């Protein structure tokens, strides 16, 4: 792998930062972030970072006012490193791919918590158009959606312990199956837009700069 996974300390810092700047509409932990990034990497088209990063915070109005440039840079670096690690596993090392589920400890017994990851995944699905997903792959998406939407909570509550464990075990393979499908579907390149030719107007050195700065051309964009 190119960089390898984040260590525990880095994941803790990332989660603390998500909580620090989080709100009721944002991603609040690394499990949900992991799910979001997995879906972004697995969808039918490439989602630009400026799109999913805004979605991560729950909208433009919620984008943090960072304490300083160093904090922002560290958050970006760790997020993209984690994203690259997910991409490596999905594409090159699928046998090493595992969703980053949470863990809840009750009376010294650990329980796997999948809701945050699945909610993050469905948040990523909502950023793209998955409507062309074929019928034979709908069960894979439903395996994630089962734990990733509030409307399915009553269904989950009715599952037997065995069925519940099976539903958890199905999430990772479902994510790999969905990624493999979209990866195999070539994205048709959009036709280049033919722009009309416009003859450039000659600007004198002492004329106002066409960029609108208010400066003379020679003191602005000439050089």
What does it look like?
This is YecA family protein. It comes from Duffyella gerundensis. InterPro entries: SEC_C_motif, YgfB-like, YgfB-like_sf. The chain is mainly α and 223 residues long. The chain has two domains: 8-184, YgfB uncharacterised protein family PF03695 (Four Helix Bundle (Hemerythrin (Met), subunit A), Up-down Bundle), CATH 1.20.120.740; 197-222, no CATH class. The chain has helices at 8-20, 30-42, 49-56, 69-91, 115-125, 138-148, 153-157, 161-169, 171-183, and strands at 102-106, 109-113. The protein has a two-stranded antiparallel sheet. Helix 2 (30-42) packs across helix 4, helix 2 runs parallel beside helix 5 (115-125) and helix 2 runs parallel beside helix 9 (171-183). The model is unreliable at 188-203 (pLDDT under 50).
CATH superfamily label of the largest domain: YgfB uncharacterised protein family PF03695
CATH hierarchy, class of the largest domain: Mainly Alpha
Mean pLDDT: 86
Number of DSSP helices?
9
Instruction: Please count the beta strands (DSSP E, at least 2 residues each).
Output: 2
Please bin the fraction of helical residues.
Answer: 40-55%
Based on the coordinates given, report the CATH architecture of the largest domain. Answer: Up-down Bundle
Strand order of the largest sheet: 1-2
The largest pleated sheet is described as: 2 strands, antiparallel
| CA-based gyration radius | 23 Å
- Contiguous low-pLDDT stretches (5 residues minimum) are 188-203
N→C terminal distance: 44 Å
In what range is the share of β-strand residues? under 5%
CATH topology of the largest domain, anyone?
A: Four Helix Bundle (Hemerythrin (Met), subunit A)
Shape: globular
Number of domains: 2
Query: Given the helix and strand composition, which structural class is it?
Result: mainly alpha
Which series of helices and strands comes N to C? HHHHEEHHHHH
């Amino acid at each position: 792998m190119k960089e390898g996974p984040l260590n525990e300390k880095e994941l803790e810092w990332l989660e603390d930062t998500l909580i620090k700047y989080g709100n009721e509409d944002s991603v609040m932990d690394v499990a949900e972030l992991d799910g979001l990034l997995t879906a972004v990497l697995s969808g039918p088209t490439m989602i630009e970072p400026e799109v999913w990063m805004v979605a991560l915070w729950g909208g433009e109005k919620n984008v943090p006012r960072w304490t300083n440039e160093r904090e922002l840079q560290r958050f970006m670096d760790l997020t993209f490193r984690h994203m690259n690690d997910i991409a490596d596993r999905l594409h090159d090392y699928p046998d090493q791919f595992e969703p980053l589920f949470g863990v809840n400890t009750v009376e010294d017994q650990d329980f796997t918590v999948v809701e945050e990851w699945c909610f993050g995944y469905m948040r990523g699905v909502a950023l793209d158009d998955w409507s062309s997903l074929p019928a034979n792959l709908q069960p894979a998406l439903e395996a994630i959606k089962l734990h990733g939407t509030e409307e399915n909570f009553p269904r989950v509550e009715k599952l037997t312990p065995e069925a519940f464990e099976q539903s958890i075990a199905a999430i990772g393979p479902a994510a790999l199956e969905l990624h493999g499908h979209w990866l195999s579907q070539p994205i048709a390149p959009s036709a280049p837009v033919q722009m009309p030719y416009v003859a450039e107007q000659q600007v004198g050195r002492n004329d106002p700069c066409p960029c609108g700065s208010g400066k003379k051309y020679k003191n602005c964009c000439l050089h």
